[in-house]
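dumping this here so i dont lose it
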């Protein structure tokens, strides 16, 4: 097991313990699969990947587990223009670039945006907890296949 995956699993175990979440085999495998994924999978994609290891794992269990993980900030729901939610392990501040053609999602950092204060008309709105930028475009692979 890679050191970073081992560390992520240790942190996950500790966070579950702190929050009083039972660490079921299903939760552990769903988290492990997300931690190893670079493609921001949907619940359906996670189900397809995990059903081989856990034949009795239902899609409903994955949806409920992901909702719990998002609620406890263990996992981020990646907001996309498509109707299907995508997920990633909660790690550091970053933003997303999404190809509108192949739907690939890439993480990137943008420190200038992160350090900006919000426009004045939003200052009195309330408390902002997170700023996230999603950039849409066409990736190099898809540009090569464009007509």
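and the seq i came up w/
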């Amino acid at each position: 097991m890679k050191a970073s995956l081992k560390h992520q699993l240790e942190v996950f175990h500790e966070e579950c313990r702190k929050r009083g979440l039972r660490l079921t085999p299903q939760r552990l495998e769903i988290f492990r699969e997300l931690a190893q994924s670079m493609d921001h999978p949907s619940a359906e994609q996670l189900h397809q990947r995990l059903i081989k290891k856990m034949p009795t794992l239902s899609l409903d269990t994955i949806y409920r587990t992901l909702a719990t993980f998002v609620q406890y900030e263990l996992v981020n729901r990646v907001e996309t223009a498509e109707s299907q939610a995508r997920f990633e392990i909660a790690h550091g501040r970053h933003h997303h670039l999404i190809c509108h053609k192949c739907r690939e999602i890439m993480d990137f950092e943008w420190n200038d945006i992160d350090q900006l204060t919000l426009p004045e008309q939003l200052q009195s709105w309330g408390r902002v907890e997170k700023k996230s930028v999603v950039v849409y475009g066409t990736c190099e692979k898809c540009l090569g296949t464009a007509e």
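DSSP finds seven helices and five strands in the chain.
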